[in-house]
């Protein structure tokens, strides 16, 4: 029998290994498999064991370090002040114990804990020099160009301050749903998408994603300069036009519990993901006196809202097959009321997730609504009766062999004519955010498809020829049939701004379509003609907001025989694959001009605002300087683009000259 003293040693090793694995999933892979509360219970157990048995503590124990999101593809930056995590509390009793230790007669800041990606913004003499992830807490990844694409983030401060600003990059629920729909539902929740977006290799790809940022704290260079309270920091950040987290309050202790309850009641109405509140001392002097542990400040706590979890049983597992071919396993569960709605299905994401949970038919599980959107299986309480579920190797709909695409964790059906893919493509095309064809929804598409009346877009737009067949089915009244046919006909009035993104082609969504139109590529014919050019890749790459992945995808579509045939037939049927001539402004001073921008500007933050004015009034925007660029708008911090423009003899315009031009032409800015 092993000596008793070996038991804590084994448990410490096991907990250390388990917590490190969870850190890897959360910080690097953005795929957590346990709740914050479950993680904290493991962490607390390890902490207590290490206190009682210090001789068994590993020098790399997770209690001595913070989780790391470092990636090998980015350069590294040493944080000037360690970036710590917050200790979590889950009830008011725990919170009050901390308040008593910290100061019952103090003022506290109360703010949302936004569920996004942490970022540090380093400004030197007012200029944004570096944007850095939290990383290990001591060293982070430099993601400056990616973060600079986020609208509303000042690139230069009027105050000229040297300051380090802490913020959270996030995505609104509505933006996430729209973006995720456009990309075939491949993203699990807003947090994962936000965290993954700032680690993209190409800033142009990041610019297409609807990222936002809130800032909530700052450290000023050369000491605090007389700043004694957190509310003064917030005031200075506001003066420098930073987007502050909404609803932040500075309140006395006696009002804290009342205000926490008020926050809890409105958390589902914020429009962005929150997973609790941050409570911190207002007095900076008091903060300094309390100090920090190796992991967290003693002067702040995170008050976490318990995720609403319900237990249920997995009765069966089936699959959702999206229009892109992505296979998503879904647990059919015993109907359960969760967050006010009855849940009958919960996502299992992918095979890796199923394996991690040990999920299968017959398992008793906990389900939640992830990010308040998608019901998901979170934990297995009792094991499955039929073993851990394994995905089939063939598509459940068409029996095509399933494949992983581009190192994805997901499996895909690559058969374009898979019935489920075809049906979902039709549903996507008709949806409100796409062609918005009234009177046609999932139910109608299902009937058309199963009856062989409309299995693709060409057949959908030929449905008027089958009016008698529709009536003979006795599924639709005559008025309903006529309304459907009328709506299909009316949809032909929609132009290229909707017809192209509604096709559901990869990397050809609404934002990319607008960029193409803004740059004169306002019809399918023009795109096809461009794709035939030898320098097509270079021309597309020069368009501001179009990255390498998008370029390759677009050129692939424009050379694909099946896609070309589809669009050709849709045009014959009367659909518009050309942008309508909109009522153009009489002010077109930038007509036939191609503008590039470099440096920072006082009146245009972000600088893309200047480019938007140019495109609105006839010009084109490009992302790099070439012989075809006619003008370069430059400001302080201009680099190689300015040098290249001078070499090529391109017209150089500074901010003052640009403002004068706008004034002369009567263009507001």
Automatic annotation (TrEMBL):
Its EC number is 6.5.1.2. Residues 585-669 form the BRCT domain. Zn(2+) binds at residues 395, 398, 413, 418. One of its GO terms (biological process) is DNA replication. This is DNA ligase. InterPro entries: BRCT_dom (IPR001357), BRCT_dom_sf (IPR036420), DNA_ligase (IPR001679), DNAligase_adenylation (IPR013839), DNAligase_N (IPR013840), Hlx-hairpin-Hlx_DNA-bd_motif (IPR003583), NA-bd_OB-fold (IPR012340), NAD_DNA_ligase_OB (IPR004150). It comes from the Bacteria. NAD(+) binds at residues 36-40, 85-86, 111, 134, 168, 280, 304. It comes from Leptospira ilyithenensis. Belongs to the NAD-dependent DNA ligase family. LigA subfamily. HAMAP family: DNA_ligase_A (MF_01588). Keywords: DNA damage, DNA repair, DNA replication, Ligase, Magnesium, Manganese, Metal-binding, NAD, Zinc. It catalyses: NAD(+) + (deoxyribonucleotide)n-3'-hydroxyl + 5'-phospho-(deoxyribonucleotide)m = (deoxyribonucleotide)n+m + AMP + beta-nicotinamide D-nucleotide. Its cofactor is Mg(2+); Mn(2+).
């Amino acid at each position: 029998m092993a000596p008793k003293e070996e038991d804590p040693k084994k448990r410490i090793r096991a907990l250390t290994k388990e917590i490190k694995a969870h850190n890897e999933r959360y910080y690097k892979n953005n795929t957590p498999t346990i709740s914050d509360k479950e993680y904290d219970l493991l962490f607390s157990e390890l902490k207590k064991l290490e206190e009682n048995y210090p001789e068994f503590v590993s020098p790399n124990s997770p209690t001595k370090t913070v989780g790391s999101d470092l990636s090998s593809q980015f350069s590294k930056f040493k944080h000037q002040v360690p970036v710590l995590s917050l200790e979590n509390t889950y009830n008011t009793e725990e919170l009050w114990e901390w308040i008593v230790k910290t100061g019952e007669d103090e003022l506290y800041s109360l703010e949302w804990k936004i569920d996004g990606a942490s970022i540090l913004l380093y400004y030197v003499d007012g200029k944004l020099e570096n944007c850095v992830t939290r990383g290990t807490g001591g060293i982070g990844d430099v993601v400056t160009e990616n973060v600079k694409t986020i609208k509303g983030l000042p690139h230069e401060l009027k105050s000229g301050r040297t300051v380090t600003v802490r913020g959270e990059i996030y995505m609104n629920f509505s933006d996430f749903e729209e973006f995720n729909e456009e990309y075939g539902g491949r993203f699990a929740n807003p947090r994962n998408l936000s965290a993954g977006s700032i680690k993209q290799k190409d800033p142009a790809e990041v610019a297409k994603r609807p990222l936002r940022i809130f800032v909530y704290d700052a450290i000023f260079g050369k000491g605090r300069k007389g700043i004694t309270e957190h509310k003064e920091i917030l005031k200075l950040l506001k003066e420098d036009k930073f987007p502050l987290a909404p609803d932040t309050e500075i309140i006395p202790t006696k009002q804290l519990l009342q205000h926490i309850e008020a926050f809890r009641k409105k958390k589902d109405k914020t429009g962005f993901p929150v997973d609790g509140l941050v409570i911190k001392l207002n007095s900076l002097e008091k903060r300094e006196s309390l100090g920090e542990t190796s992991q967290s400040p003693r002067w702040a706590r995170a008050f976490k809202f318990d995720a609403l979890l319900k237990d249920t049983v997995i009765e069966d597992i089936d699959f959702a097959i999206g229009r892109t071919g992505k296979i998503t396993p879904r647990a059919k569960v015993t109907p359960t009321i969760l967050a006010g709605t009855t849940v009958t299905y919960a996502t299992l994401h992918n095979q890796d997730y199923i394996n991690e949970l040990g999920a299968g038919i017959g398992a008793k599980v906990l389900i939640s609504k992830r990010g308040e959107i998608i019901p998901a299986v979170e934990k297995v309480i009792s094991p499955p009766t039929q073993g851990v579920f394994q995905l089939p190797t063939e598509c459940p709909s068409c029996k095509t062999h399933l494949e992983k695409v581009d190192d994805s964790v997901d499996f895909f059906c690559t058969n374009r004519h898979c019935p489920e893919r075809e049906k979902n493509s039709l549903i996507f095309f008709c949806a409100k955010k796409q062609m918005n064809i009234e009177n046609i929804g999932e139910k109608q598409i299902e009937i058309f498809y199963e009856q062989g009346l409309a299995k693709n877009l060409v057949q959908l737009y030929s449905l008027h020829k089958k009016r008698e067949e529709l009536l003979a089915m006795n599924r639709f009244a005559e008025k309903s049939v006529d309304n459907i046919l009328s709506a299909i006909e009316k949809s032909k009035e929609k132009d290229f701004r909707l017809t192209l993104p509604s096709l559901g082609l990869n990397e050809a969504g609404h934002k990319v379509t607008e960029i193409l139109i803004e740059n004169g590529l306002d019809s399918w014919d023009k795109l096809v003609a461009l794709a035939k050019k030898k320098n097509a890749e270079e021309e597309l790459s020069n368009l501001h907001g179009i990255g390498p992945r998008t370029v390759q995808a677009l050129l692939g579509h424009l050379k694909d025989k099946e896609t070309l045939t589809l669009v050709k037939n849709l045009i014959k049927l009367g659909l518009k694959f050309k942008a309508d001539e909109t009522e153009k402004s009489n002010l077109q001073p930038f007509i036939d001009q191609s503008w590039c921008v470099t440096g920072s500007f006082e009146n245009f933050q972000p600088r893309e605002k200047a480019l938007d004015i140019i495109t609105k009034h006839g010009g084109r925007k490009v992302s790099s300087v070439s012989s075809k660029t006619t003008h370069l708008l430059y400001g302080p911090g201009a680099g190689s683009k300015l040098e290249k423009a001078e070499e090529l003899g391109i017209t150089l315009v500074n901010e003052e000259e640009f403002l004068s031009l706008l004034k002369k032409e009567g263009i507001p800015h």
